[in-house]
Amino acid sequence: TDDDLFSSAFCEDSEKLVNVHLFALAAKYYSLSNLGVCTPLEDVLEALKGDREGATGIKPDEFMNNKKSHEVQVMSELVDNIANYCGIKQVIDVGSGKGYLSSFLSMQYNLKVYGIDSSNSNTNGAHERNRKLKKHWRVYQSRGRKNLESQSLEKANDRPVESETKCKTINEELFNNANSLQNQDQVIQDLVPSCGFTEMTTPETNTETEADLVAGSQSHETKLSEEVLAILNVLPADAVEDFSSSRYNCGELCEEEKVQRKMTSLKTKARKSSESNLYFPLTSCITAETELNDIITDLEDCMMVGLHTCGDLAANTLRIFTAKPEIKAICSVGCCYHLLSEQFENQEECRDQVWGFPMCQYLKEKGWSCGRNARMSACLALERVAVGQMLPTESLFYRAVLQVIIEEIYGVTKSDRHVGKTFSKSSSFIDYVRRSLKKLELDDSKLPDSCIMDYYEKYKHRMNELEAFNMLKVVLAPCIEVLILLDRLCYLKEQENIAWSGLVKLFDPVKSPRCYAVIALKNQSC
Question: Which part of the chain is the Methyltransferase domain (predicted)?
Fold first, then answer.
C-alpha cells in the first residue's frame, strides 16, 4: 500500500529520515490539492449564481495592497453570491480587523455588514478608514451603477421578464468530491428542495429613476425648477422639507408641494436604504458562548464570514454558526494555526473549556494532538518557497541561538513574553540578543558581548543544517494544514442542520498562503 511505501522513508530502528525524496512524495500525496476533497470555486459560483449577473464597478486595489485586494475581491464575490442565494442582506464579519472586507461588501454589494473585532485600535481604525471611504461613496456607486446599466441595456432584448422567484438547485455533480467524505451527507440536489433555498430578489431603489417618473407624471401640475431638484440632491430630506414649508404657502402652491413631498419621501427612502447598507465596526471578544444578540441589537437572518480568523476564532465561528438559527451560511478562512488550543496537547482534562482542535467527534475519540511545533509548521508557505521566496534563514538562526542562550544562561525554558519582529530592527547579532533580552525582561548586563559572540561562533556552522530542517518543515506544512481543515469540515458534516458544507480554494497561495475556505449552508427550516 501507499502507507507501507511511504513508511520506508524512515529507518525502522532509529526512526530517522533516510529518504528525503520519498518523504516529499508522501507529503505531496497527502496534501489537500491531491486528496480530491475540495470543491472548485468556479463550480460553486456557477451553482450559486445561476443566470444572475454579478456586480461590477469598484476595484479593491484602488484602496488596499495587492494581497488584500486579491483576497477581498475573490471572497466578497463569493459572499455576495451566497447571501443572494439564501435571500439575506446582513453579514457578520468576525475578526474584521481594519474592515477591508466589510467596507467592500457594504460599498460594492449593498450589504449591511457588522464587523466585530476584539481590538479597540482596529475598530477605531476601521471607523476612520470607513469615514474616509464614504467621501468616495457616490463616485464608486455611480460607477458601479453605470456599468450595471450598460450591461442591462445590452441584454434587455434577451432577458425574459421574471414574475416570480425561482428556486435554484445546486447540481449534484458539483459536490461529488465533498460528499465522498461521509456517506451520510446527501447530495445537495436532494437537500435543497426540502430546505427551500431560494434566491430572493430584492427590488432596488433607484432614486434618480423614481424621481424622474414622479416629476414626469406630475409635469402638468408643477413648475419645479432645476434649482430645486439640485437642492434635493444635496440637502438631507429633513432640510428640504423645512425649506419648502417655510418658503411657500401651502394654499397657494398645493399641487407643487404635493410633488415636492413625494420627492422628499423618495429621498428619505433612498437615505434609509443607503444607511441600511453601511458598515458598522464593533469591538467584542468572540467565543463559542458569545450571544450575538447582545452585540447586534437588530440581528436578523444573516451569514457569518471571516477572512483569516486567528487561532481559536475560526473554530468558534463554526460553533456559533451551527448553534445560532439566524446564521444561515458561513464562509471562513482561518490562519495562525500555532495559536490554536488543543484538548489533548498537555493531557490536562478541562471539562468546561472549548478547544480549537480537535472539533470533530472522530479525532476527539482518537485523542488526536498535533503539538505546537506541528501547528507552527502548518503556517509555513510551501508555494512561496517553490517560486523562490526563500525562508528567512538568518533570522531563524538568530532565534535558535537566542533560545540556547536564555536556557543556558538564564535557565528560562518557557515565557509568556515574545521577541516579536526584533530581527528587522537589529544591526547585528549582539544587538538582536540585547533587544530580545529586554523584551523578555531579562538582565543583559551580566552577558558580555564576547559571550554572545561565542554562542554565535559555536553554532554558525549548523546554519545549513537549520535551513535543511526548515525546508523539511515547509514540505510537511500542507499535510498538517489538511488535518486541521478536514477536522473543521467533518465537524460541520456531523451537524444535522447543514444542507451542504465543503472546502474551497479561494486564493492564489503565492499571494495568500492561507487560501482555503470552509463554507456551509444551512437547511432553511433550521
Answer: 67-343
